[in-house]
Amino acid sequence: MDKLARLRSEVPGLDDICDGGLIAGSSYIVQGRPGAGKTILANQIAFAQARQGHKVLYITLLAESHDRLFQSLSALSFYDASRLGKDLTYLSLFRTLREKGLDALVALLRSELARTQASILVLDGLLNARESSETNLDIKTFVAELQGHAAFTGCTVLFLTSARIDESSPEHTMVDGVLHLEENLFGSRTVRHIRVAKSRGSRALSGLHLYEISERGIAVFPRLEAALARPSTQETVGLTKVATGTGGLDERLGGGLPAASMSVVVGPAGSGKTTFGIGYLNCATVERPAVHFGFYETPERLYAKAKALGLDLQTLVEKKALCMLWRPLTENLLDKLAYELLDAVRTTRAERLFIDGLAGFERATVDPHRMVEFFAALSNELRAIGVTTVCTWETKELSGPWRTNPSPEILSQIDNVIEMRHQAAGGPLRRSITVLKVRDSLFDTSTAEVQISGLGDGLHVTGTMSTARGAMGDDASGR
Amino acid sequence: MANLVVVDDEPLVTDFLKFLLQDLGHVVHAASNGADGLQTIQRIRPSLVVTDFMMPVSSGVDLARALSGDDDFRRIPIVLCSAAPHAIDPADRALFAAILQKPYPPYRLIELVTLHVERGGAGLRGQP
Question: Cβ separation of A92 and B11 shorter than 8 Å?
Fold first, then answer.
């Protein structure tokens, strides 16, 4: 089967959800309410096409002026005024449509396409064309004629409309694809989603994909569990172990954490999870770099915290042995976080990754039902890339049972589980680490007492806590 | 008072220009593209033309070229208003009495119209 020629939209993520891109010579409806970003999307594609050496014809059927359009586009980085009138022609056919009707509009569009030799046609305001048609048959004829002409000349057509076009409408049935942009309120935040509602001849990524509008235009973040339903590369399972950075713990783990595995450090606030992470990251070298992906402390605060432990993370960052990514727990887009994380790991070729913590992803999502599938896709991909990941998971209780807290579906996808606790009752503060699970490995099941040491290794095991179960509260094993 | 022709594919623009220039006491005729504009100009024989660049059928530059090739009309000053003035070939710039980049302050256009209409439109071609 011949591979269809596709347009490179240069809209991040868009081609990925469209099975590689919009098909050249096909026609698409881009629908969404005013403010959803249809015009930005179409112009972003148009300017990309112009940069790639194609001619663009942009027709408005709206009463809105082009000056205003250019003014708002000029705030966006893809906009290049020097291409106007050369590679991109903007025409208003509002008057033709209003005064002469659809037949005259098609005739004029045909001659303009020939005159400009455009390979992409954007028709902004299909709703207006629909209003001026007497019947559905008129609009059907209009779309069919334009589509036929465009397909014949290899021109791709984008019909932009703010009308709610349902699946039975003539436009919907005739075009090759429909992109639906929507903006919804979740609590007090607004979230934008794009959906490929129809895609003839292409296996588009189904469902809702998050997108954002920034000064770079639109960026789409394909739903991770759909985009990475299977990891991008095959996982290689080795027997290599990776040091935790906590003195005396590797022996208890059977030599360290299995390479390319996913570990979680569970415990209440103040139990030492971040300190554990600092020790873990401190093992990074220029040859074997690490990534820190955190939602809480800024890099500066982590440097200070590390310094107090006698560790120097800042120098590791300067040597490019460590990459620090801080994403404050404000408003985040779930899939964007995942792509930033994966991108950092891939580009730095990191071998160790510390995520502080998993709850940051949970807070970012507007759809909690996705979390299990999302985490499966993310963790499978991280394993396949070969990075050894340690995440933190904060339990709600300051002490006591945690086993009901991280969801069992997520815990079952984690290879290694390490529990951290602290207790001050009846004496000085005592910290403990218990290894609960290690993938394909024997490990020490006793509870280790740990101290925050000044020995330059963050946490340090000082011995086995013989009365740990009684002293530390509920039996974590459930027995 | 003078006869003027304004040419633009956007009705918002021609409506505004009509309002602006009629207020100065001129009679304003509108056309929606270069070809339509040429016919209107040939019929009206205006003192000045204000035209857009990017238009269907034929552009503002096409219109200016057609007028410059006709002895009866080559002396009519043409003010080009465009969002994309850099797309105009340097050789074609001389076809216009002035080039304004959209969006422009209305007083700039009023100044240009006043200047060129009062001069009678003679021998102005090619001046900035």
Answer: yes
Q: Which residues of B touch A111 (CB under 8 A)?
A: 57
CATH of the structural domain A241-464, one choice from 3.40.30.10, 3.30.540.10, 3.40.50.300, 1.10.1740.10: 3.40.50.300
Please tell me the pTM assigned to this model.
0.88
Every domain of chain A and the residues it spans = 6-222, 241-464
- Kindly provide the ipTM of the predicted complex, given to two decimals: 0.80
Asked whether residue A207 carries a pLDDT value surpassing 90, the answer given is yes
Is residue B126 in some structural domain? no
For residue A74, the chain B residue with the least C-alpha distance is B83
User: For residue B66, is it within any domain?
Assistant: yes
Query: Does A62 touch chain B if contact means CB atoms closer than 8 Å?
Result: no
For residue A79, which residues of chain B lie inside 8 Å, CB to CB?
none
The 10 Å CB-count burial string (b at 16+, else e) for A233-260 is eeeeeeeebbbbbbbbbbebbbbbbbbb
Which residues in chain A touch residue B13, judged by CB atoms under 8 angstroms apart? 65
Q: Is B103 on the interface with A (CB under 8 A)?
A: yes
Instruction: Using CA atoms of B102, B104, B106, B111 in order, give the dihedral in degrees to the nearest 10.
Output: -110
Please answer yes or no on whether A93 and B9 come within 8 Å at the CB atom. yes
How many domains, in total, are found in chain B? Answer: 1
Q: What is the pLDDT of residue B123?
A: 40
Q: Is the pLDDT of residue B76 over 80?
A: yes
CATH 1.10.150.130 fits A6-222, yes or no: no
Q: Strand A217-221 to strand A262-267: parallel, antiparallel, or no bridges (unpaired)?
A: unpaired
Interval A35-89: pLDDT, tens: 999 999 999 999 999 999 999 999 998 877 898 899 999 999 999 999 999 999 9
Chain A: nearest CA to B18, how far in angstroms? 16
